[in-house]
């Protein structure tokens, strides 16, 4: 499994049972600097998602609010300092 495919599955999985919107997935993957500069980044991500039979698509009954990206490592550091 490639590093990009692992990152895609991790970011989708981090959202739990509610899933993730495409907007949020793009933003989260962009935070992983080593992937965003990849040539044909969006096409690679999209093709992986379409071909993966464990990823399901659902239409949301209401549009979600735009996400705010926060650094997960900051939260981990706060927990460690307690």
Helix content: 55-70%
Strand content: under 5%
Helix count equals: 5
In angstroms, what separates the terminal alpha carbons?
36 Å
Structural summary, described in words:
This protein has helices at residues 3-14, 22-31, 33-36, 41-51, 72-80. The chain has 82 residues and is mostly helical. It has one domain (3-80). The longest helix is centred in the first third of the chain and has 12 residues, at 3-14. The protein is globular, with a radius of gyration of 14 Å. The termini are far apart. The mean pLDDT is 82.
Set out the fold topology.
Elements: H1 3-14, H2 22-31, H3 33-36, H4 41-51, H5 72-80
Top keywords for this entry?
single chain; 82 residues; mainly alpha; globular; WH_GTF3C1; General transcription factor 3C polypeptide 1 winged-helix domain-containing protein
Short description:
InterPro entries: WH_GTF3C1. This protein has 82 residues and is mostly helical. The chain contains 5 helices and no strands.
